[in-house]
Structure formats: C-alpha cells, structure tokens
Amino acid sequence: MPANEQKLIKIPVKLVFTEVGSTAMMRQNLKISRLKMGDNTDDYGIVLDKAAPPFIQGMITADYISKIEISGVEPIQNRSDIIELSKVIVFSVLYRNYALASQEQVLASETVKRWNHSNPSQVIDEKTLFQSGVIQAFLEKYPDELRSLQKELVDPIRTHIETDKNLEADEKNIRVGLLNNFVSSMYPFVWFILLRFRQAPDFINVLKNVRGCLLDFLGKTNIAEYAGLMLMELATNIENLIIQKEAKLLYRTNPVDAKSVIQDPKLRLPVIESLRKKNSLLTFSWKLGGARMAMGSRGRFQVLLYDQDVNFAETRGNVDQTKAADAGRSNLSEFYKNLHRNGNELDLGMFYLSFLDEACDKMGIKFESMVNQYGGQTITTLTFTL
Asked: What is the C-alpha to C-alpha distance for residues 355 and 331, in angstroms, rounded to an integer?
C-alpha cells in the first residue's frame, strides 16, 4: 500500500540523519540527540514516539535519513506496525531511486547531449546550478504544459493497469496510487528539462525511456510486501529462540515446555519482561543507501536484526540450510498453504528466504542474506539492491 494511505505507526522509531538531513534539521531549530544504536555505536538523530508514514517517506526521499531503528519492542505484539514501517521504508527507497534513475535517463539522452555539445558554456548535468526559485518559477509559468506532459508520461501505464483483467478493483487502485507516487517523486529539475526540450525532434525517445524506467520500478513494488513478511517471520523465529533460552533460566525451578511458553501469554509475559529489563529484545535496523553514494551502491539498503541471546551456530545453520531449499511456488498464498500442510508453520521465516530470493530474481532485485557474530551479538542481515 502506498505510504501516504497508511495509518500512524505507534512504536518508538529512531531516525539517524545524513549530513544533509542534520543541516536541514538545524536550520529548523530541531534538537538532535545522541542515540545509542543496536550495534552499540552512537549516532545523531531523533526519536519519535509515533511516526507518520508521509513524514518518513518525505525524509527518505529527500535523503535526510541514513538509518532507521526500532528496539525494545516485541515482534509478535507489534507485528502490524513493524511490517508497515518496513513497507514505508522500502516504498520510500524505491521512490527516491526512481527519482535518481529518471534524472539519469534524461541527462543521458541524445537530446541533452546534443544541447551540451552545442552550448558548452551552458551544459546541463547533475551539477548544474540554478538561481533560487528559477526552476519553480518556470514550472509555474507553464502549468497546462506540465499537466499535459505528466499525462503523456503516465496515461499508457494507467490504461494498462485499469484494463488488466488479472487485477481486482482494489489492486488497480493501489497500483495507480503507486504510479502517482512515483511521478510525484520526480525532481523539479527533471520536469524542467522535459518541458524545456519538449519540442526537440527526438523528445518522444526521452519520454519513452523515462516511462520505461517508471515501469521497471513499478514492477519492483511487490518487494515491499515480501520484505515486510520475511522480516516478521525471521524476527518471530529468532524471538522464539530467545524466549526459549530465557524461559529455561526463569523457570529453572519449575521447568515448563518451550512451546507452552511461546503460546501461553501467562507464561510468555514474564519472559518478555525479563528480556526487556536485560535490554535483550530484538533490534530492527534499516540502513539506507543515500542519493549521494556511488551509482553502483546507492540502490542498496540493508535490514538488520540484532540480538544478544540467540545461539549463533543454530541460527546460521538454519539460514544456510534453508537458503537453498526448493520453495518455489506460483504465489505467496500457495507457498504458505503448502508449508502449513507439511507442518512447517513455525519455520516459515527460514523457508521464506528461498522464496524471497526467487521473487527478487524475477523483479531484477539482488538479494543476499547472512548471519554473523560480532562483539557478542548475532546479526542477521538482509541486503537488497533495487
């Protein structure tokens, strides 16, 4: 679901700023604090008790945030908020990366190259500087032309979505919403160039390339749903290991069955509280590749799970064994149904790794997963290159 249609995320969220973000926040007199992060390092940013998805989306697309983290929350109890936050982050990274990619498409076009060759003193590239307000004033001068250009860009895609018989009505609405969000994320600088060269003889090729780029990113949006589910299932799997280990200590004088602790709230709650006092609940961290990174790496972002108590060898062994599992299915629903029929529902996170790998391959997304130990912590890392 597009980020701007989502409800408030009601869990504490740490936002770590980029250098650009820090400068922007200080200009607005926002107090930046020193934050202790899940990897035991210190960073600078703010903590939000509740987070509005449009706010987070705007901060990411503006390249103001380098890292987002939540800690001290129970995955199962906060499942919906964690999944929604994950989806907001992934959508925002996609919007930002499309904005960059569409700019690169335009600047690499023969139309712009021809202009730069003929006007060496007025070269247009990513380093071109304009006086404050010039681009906005130009766009405001031609509102009808701008709307017409935007319509020309998206209408073929919108028509394809609306006439797709394989999509339900609500699915069509969601995809049209995503389409609008991608277009809204495009830089004013790009619209300026498109309007400026709209009468060029080969302009149709420029627009076609931008539309192709838009289609490519629109086709990657399912990763938001898949990554959120993968993260939640993996977190649940790790949390269950943590709970079982803590339960052995807490109930050592009156041993109880491990599954009972996981499933019975009366037995589970004291274990969770004990873990919380020890600061041993999972930490979720999203590291975002910023717009100012090198071209080959800025499309990459990482999702990390930090924990103090999981048996490292057991976790890594589970991940390594199941990454290569044959979990290919026609769709996610069938995948889950088959796992349930085979009695593997408690290990969905592990088996889903291979499903996610296959899905990413089809969407042209590079996906890697690994488990490492560093400084007494077990760190599970999911890396996506969009």
From this structure: 9
Task: Name residue 204's amino acid.
Answer: I
Which tens digits make up the pLDDT trace of 189-232?
Answer: 999 999 999 999 899 999 999 999 999 999 999 999 888 988 88
Strand ordering across the sheet containing 366-374: 33-36, 42-48, 13-17, 65-71, 283-288, 300-307, 377-385, 366-374
Cα angle vertex 14, ends 8, 18, to 5°? 115
Q: Is the pTM of this model over 0.90?
A: no
Instruction: Check: CB of residue 205 under 8 Å from CB of residue 230.
Output: no
Could you tell me if 197 and 203 are in contact, meaning their C-beta atoms sit under 8 angstroms apart?
Answer: yes
Taking the CA of residue 35 as centre, how many other CA atoms within 13 Å lie in the half-sphere pointing to its CB? 23
Q: What is each CA distance from 178 to 23, 164, 329, 356, in whole angstroms?
A: 30, 16, 26, 21
What's the rounded Cα separation, in Å, for the pair 54 and 353?
29
